[in-house]
Amino acid sequence: MTTKTVHKVDYGDLECFIQQHYGRSISLISHLEAKNGSSHTVEATATYTDYSQPYEGVPRPLLEGLDPAVAELVHGWTQGQAEEPGLDELMHDLVCKGAIPAGEYVIDVSW
């Protein structure tokens, strides 16, 4: 038997968590292009695809840990020197920092 854990979270709670963790606010409504009463799924992982090597017809390797490009983007954003990362990048960063568990997140939008 295979089981899967799905984390269900309210968008407002996730916005507050992100603001507390990074000291910066975001609008998940904008990120998700969400409407009232909708749900959106995000996969948060501790792995990333390595695009640093030239493509040679074989699948690119999946590496453990924080994607260096995401680390740079998130760091720049927290310092006010880069644009806001996407939700996928923030969730990847949070998983790699141990702030949230990896897995599927269903974000409920209701106001």
Overview of this structure, please?
The protein is of the alpha+beta class and 111 residues long. The protein has one domain. 34% of the residues lie in helices and 23% in strands. It has four helices and five strands, in the order βααβββααβ. The chain has a three-stranded mixed sheet with strand order 1-5-2.
What are the salient characteristics of this protein?
single chain, 111 residues, alpha+beta, three-stranded mixed β-sheet, two-stranded antiparallel ribbon, 5 strands, globular
Largest sheet: 3 strands, mixed
Strand tally is 5
Number of helices: 4
Helix content: 25-40%
Basic shape? globular
Overall radius of gyration? 15 Å
What's the overall average pLDDT, rounded? 93
Strand content: 15-25%
- What sequence of helices (H) and strands (E) makes up the elements? EHHEEEHHE
- Poorly predicted runs are none
Task: Provide a quick synopsis of the model.
By secondary structure, the protein is of the alpha+beta class.
